[in-house]
Design a protein that fits this description.
single chain, mainly alpha, 11 helices, about 0% strand, elongated
Length: about 250
Amino acid sequence: MTSMADAGAVERPGGDGGVAQVDRGRRATAARRAGEQGFPGAWVSGVCLVATPVIAVVSSALAIGAYSESGSKLAAGLAGHHARMVLALNLNLAGVMLAFFVVAFLAQAIAASHPRLGRAGGVLTMLGLLGPAFFLGIFWGASHIVDTPAHEKVAALLIDGSNRVPTTIDNISGACLLAGFIVLGVGAARSGLLGRGRAAALAVTCLIPFGFISGYMVISCVAYVGLVIAAVPLGVHVLRDARVPTPAVATS
């Protein structure tokens, strides 16, 4: 029985319409094949592709007005908007955790036809994601010691110390995230996983570090919206095409 993805890959007469049909078929086939891979699997990939960008947009929007690149200002923001920032930090960390599965799916799908782009994009982006995870831990610790002005100063020193280059090897994560999403965007376009518009939106996700470095979370929000445009429709397609596993029948 021919699946919808395979059927879409058959070229039909009609000039540009036929070419567009073939392009859609290529993207559907690439997504289906990636979803059928052993790790992380179609269901996990599909859910993460849909959920991760939405969580990221919400978390960065919550931090607008309270986040700052300055340690003293961020400590004040953590103290003055404690509940909101704790929620934002939790959601942001959840987004980072799920993003690893998104990147694994994208890298795998791209590497099927363009191994170098898929592998390079996957490795760079995963290294880049370790940066937000590290700094979110710093911010989380700081959020619990801002109950007094004296403790706010300690939190500010902790934040500023972690941001000082090159105090930790994790400072390379911003560059890795920037390069990684650009490579994934190029790979998604060349492999046919995404159309040019959505592949460009995926590449725009590389702006994430600039929002945190500059203190303007609106920049990160724009980057995450790019991820929404690129990943959510792909995730919906992967979930629709996911095959329900058939339980094995025990034999005596």
